[in-house]
Amino acid sequence: MQEPSEGVTPEDLNSLRLGKVKKSAAGIPAAISSLNHGIRKMGVSKTIKTLLMVNQKDGFDCPGCAWPDPKHRTSFEFCENGAKAVADEAMKDRVNPNFFKRYDVQTLLKKSDYWLNKQGRISHPMILKPGSSNYVPIQWEEAFDLISESIKSMDQPERGVYYTSGRTSNEAAFLYQALVRSLGTNNLPDCSNMCHESSGKALVSTIGIGKGTVHLEDFNKSDLILVVGQNPGTNHPRMLTALRDAKRNGSKIVNINPLPETGLSRFKHPQEYMEMDLTSTQLSDMHLQVKIGGDAALFQGVIKHLLDTNSYDTTFIEEHTIYFEQLISHMKNFSWDQVIQDSGISKKQIIEFAEMCASSTATIACWAMGLTQHRNGVSVIQEVVNLLLLGGHIGREGAGVCPVRGHSNVQGDRTVGIWEAPSEIFLESMEKGLGFDLPKEHGYDVVESIYAMEKGIVDVFICMGGNFLSATPDTRRTAKAIQNIGLTVQISTKLNRSHLITGKSALILPVLGRTEIDIQNSKKQFVTVENSMGVVHRSEGKLKPTSSSLRSEPSIVAELGKRLAPEKLPWNTLSQDYDTIRDLMSNSLSGFENYNERVRHDNGFLLPNPPRDKLEFDTPSGKAAFSMNPLPDVSVKSNEYVLMTMRSHDQYNTTIYGLHDRYRGIHGNRRVVLMNSLDMAENGLKTRDMVHLSSSFEGTLRQSNNWIVVAYDIPKGNMAAYFPEANELVPLDSVAEKSNTPTSKWIVVSLSKTSDVFEEE
Ligand code: SF4
After folding, report:
1. How far does the centroid of ligand 1 lie from the alpha carbon of residue 82, in Å?
2. In angstroms, what is the span from residue 56 Cα to ligand 1's centroid?
3. 666 alpha carbon to ligand 1 midpoint, in Å?
């Protein structure tokens, strides 16, 4: 049985350089870093050419996050991490058959995720045969035959699991779900299961749609913006431009986060230097440094104050909501002591914040993983909705909910059918368009897929992009489960750890990237994506493919369709001209009418959003619903701490671009754990001491060794560490109620000291 990694990689022994926490985000350092990554990976001319095409109307969509593009683009319509994402995909280096001859799987397992990623683009289809230690080349046709024979030999369709990462285009995702459902299963887990699933569940139950209700332009019309459990400076950097503009229009910004993230303190837009504007913008007016897991208590405190001071929009509540009376009686059990204890925020600060909410006429609430990846991920987001409903901040200009997606098309994939638990209405409409019956029984989400692998009831596992092993919790347990599978297939651009922990046999299928020209039937094709605000727009690759052996996502799915379900759809026609896929989508999905015509408009088109567009709520009552939730138990034992995983500024999801978490001043090493200095003193620890961490959950124990302690401004009792390294501490069984999302932001750990000290250079 292969271990996912040796736990400590060469880079972990790198020198750790600690600098000051940055006071201002972006600016010249971001421009330098963007160029640096570009030139190092693509060379000078390709860097200029490529960065001038990203997020442009006739260019390609950034493969980074899902922050929307403004209607009026600037020439440099990207952020530092967008530049890194593009450079990472368009890099010159190759992982070709010789590479795999040189490195066997065992050797590669000892390498860090950073090292694996920087080896380059995978150039040829490769196979790892049972019992062998090196990948060898395979012809595409052979690979497709092996996959289809393996699927055909399954005695039940449920023994196949088909994962999707949020980079997959709408067209590929639609064909993929059609193929999988034609095989008779809804086993369509996706990365959304691990990120905004809690948002979807909370919003559908309260306002009847699992998406945000704001436009980008609303940021300029708001007077209060809440940024909760989100670090936009690193994960959605162009959002800082929207926050700057909102500030300039008089909006106030409240940052709610256990960590004082640089991106929410000051911002300097690099392009302002070109206008000789040397000033930077103070962003957040208030930072509420809530304890990990204390957000629900904080929001209940605010709601309590608004109810007590009758600071709510009676007209909106009467006309558009239900359960207001129930909320009032529910809040009767309210305890200020518990709220202050659990949130770590003083009553004075809570009331000050509540007064800002009371005087707001247009509030936007933005959030990310800091809310969704908790046991109470769904109910805490319902508290946020409660707060907005009290003020009537839904379906109003400058107001609304804004879950910010971290993956460029994760929302689009769900919209077009990548969903293990589709509604009947959704399937009925899809059946009409596709013309064949679809399975109704819900399939496995990510966590359930791993349980099925563990039980040995998964024969074939296909991943459309992503890095399943590193993105999922309980790394060692998940690695063991994956190795029970017969055949694993990774459809990938870059090398990662999921290529090294595999089924009995494994395939790597190298796919065209978002930046690359996609020619089918001698005609250039474009694909489409949906951003966090429900805008569907086109993306057309512009760069010569990194290898002539690459295939597009839609053509890979079509080749399998031709072998597995030839009678279901005209797979060849569909993969030869993506307009035909979009026509099929027009007939199968509500909101995609005249898809081909509308998506050719300069800025694409907006999908319908009843709460935003016409204050209509697709809920059982037809009204927006207040929610009544008990506060979660956030107490831990005296020798325990609550750890949250996080990204560094030099990574995107599980892709490690570099070892410089510039804003936090942490350089050269990622195996660090941020601790409160009082907690360190109580344990006789100082910065650079090394500790072991262990997490126990329902009688199961996980050990993770050799973490370097770094004193940091984090609430007492809380810790933070980077993923994917810390994912081995996240219990697979610890999930959010209702959404089944792993609780990567709530991990109860204890530490043991080692005598080691990570010496200064
Ligand atoms: S904000 Fe997101 S989508 Fe925009 S350039 Fe940056 S990473 Fe890409």
Report:
1. 5
2. 12
3. 23
Which ligand 1 atom sits closest to the C-alpha of 65? 2
pTM exceeding the 0.70 threshold for the entire prediction: yes
Asked whether residue 424 falls in the same domain as residue 400, the answer is no
Are residues 166 and 514 in contact, defined by beta-carbon separation less than 8 angstroms? no
Q: Cα(35) to centroid of ligand 1, in Å?
A: 15
Q: Which of 404, 431, 465 is the last residue of a domain?
A: 404
What's the confidence (pLDDT) of residue 277? 84
Half-sphere exposure of 399 (CA within 13 A, CB side): 21
**CATH of residue 375:** 3.40.228.10
Q: Please identify, by atom number, the ligand 1 atom nearest to the C-alpha of residue 531.
A: 3
Distance CA 203, CA 385 (A): 8
- Collapsed DSSP state (helix, strand, coil) of residue 321: strand
For Cα atoms 101, 141, 148, give the angle at the middle one, nearest 5 degrees.
Answer: 105
Q: What is the pLDDT of residues 713-740, one digit of tens each?
A: 999 999 999 999 999 999 999 999 999 9
Q: What is the pLDDT of residue 2?
A: 65
Determine which residue's CA is closest to atom 3 belonging to ligand 1.
65
Range of the domain at 275: 197-404
The pLDDT value given to residue 693: 97
CA 412 – CA 406 distance, rounded (Å): 12
**By the 8 A CB rule, do 618 and 692 touch?**
no
**Residue 721 in contact with residue 756, Cβ under 8 Å?**
no
Tell me the CA–centroid distance for residue 397 and ligand 1, in Å. Answer: 24
Judge if 210 and 174 occupy the same domain. Answer: no
Question: In whole angstroms, what is the distance from residue 527 CA to residue 516 CA?
Answer: 11
Chain CA centroid to CA 25, Å = 21
| Maximum Cα–Cα distance across the chain | 71
- Which pLDDT belongs to residue 13? 60
The per-residue pLDDT for 307 is 98
* Segments of the chain with pLDDT less than 50: 761
> What pLDDT digit, counting tens, does each position of 75-94 carry?
999 999 999 999 999 999 99
Lining ligand 1 with CB less than 6 A are: 62, 64-65, 67, 78-79, 81-82, 85, 236-238
